[in-house]
Amino acid sequence: MEEIGFLGMGIMGKAMAMNLLRHGFKVSVWNRTLSKCDELKEHGASVGESPAAVIKKCKYTIGMLSDPPAALSVVFDKGGILEEICSGKGYIDMSTVDAETSAKISEAVQKKGGSFLEAPVSGSKKPAEDGQLVILAAGEKGLYDAILPAFDVLGKKSFFLGEVGNGAKMKLVVNMIMGSMMNAFSEGLVLADKSGLSPKTLLDVLDLAAIANPMFKMKGPSMIENSYSPAFPLKHQQKDMRLALALGDENAVSMPVAAAANEAFKKARSTGLGDLDFSAVYEIFKVTEPSA
Ligand SMILES: NC(=O)C1=CN([C@@H]2O[C@H](COP(=O)(O)OP(=O)(O)OC[C@H]3O[C@@H](n4cnc5c(N)ncnc54)[C@H](OP(=O)(O)O)[C@@H]3O)[C@@H](O)[C@H]2O)C=CC1
Ligand SMILES: O=CC(=O)O
Asked: One MF term from GO for this chain (predicted)?
């Protein structure tokens, strides 16, 4: 396949671009903080000086940026995608954003004659390293078909969900559920501990019960060690809760559980836990009321 552009060398983008390189793809990368491209360069990637420079060089370019302002910035700002995107080129945004952000980008890219696909992913740092992501694509089907060889390397399964916005919405629903589960899990760990049970034994029981799941299994042991090395940064999980709640507002869906979870993530951010893993929300539940 032709050289693939990759914008955003954060936790996910770096792992995904590395994976493409490992599978023999030629990759051209860009990151706002340029030094984060060094390791990729050592593994054979070329480095572009701006998103526009990468788009100019590559037929297909993937973006993996933190949030809606970042996703919009690489498209609309000086040196951005719009300066070089044209007929025959495609942009695939794999960031987690809301449907409105995706639609804005899609419209602008198409106005210049380019193709657009949104393709947020489910799965964190390790699945990204192992090519085990779940890809939630929507937009131009021709671009989806063309980029599938790369998706087959990045993920274990790709879904094509129709018109732009459906991928973003699916991702927000999934992460709203994940964030709510992480809150219930944290409360349960604290309740076990405070009521004299072993949190470690709780993990063993949960793993054999009807609610066993990969997230509890993966995060539980590090949480009880108070270890929160970021795989999925808490600030991004809170962004996803916020965007999912806005989707709930638009559709008049009452979401009291997600709203409470969002408050806990906000509180965690306000106490400086935003750059840690989202499982650090556990710390919020450990804080006990001072006795009167
Ligand atoms: N980590 C995870 O487990 C998962 C994350 N996601 C989603 O993937 C996306 C990326 O996540 P992740 O890699 O963890 O995040 P990181 O915070 O590790 O990386 C964010 C990236 O966005 C860039 N960026 C931020 N602001 C701007 C801006 N204004 N202009 C240009 N670039 C900018 C950063 O550049 P710089 O280095 O210069 O700061 C960096 O490359 C997010 O939308 C997240 O919600 C989805 C699934 C799993
Ligand atoms: O967005 C995070 C994930 O683990 O999926």
From this structure: NADP binding
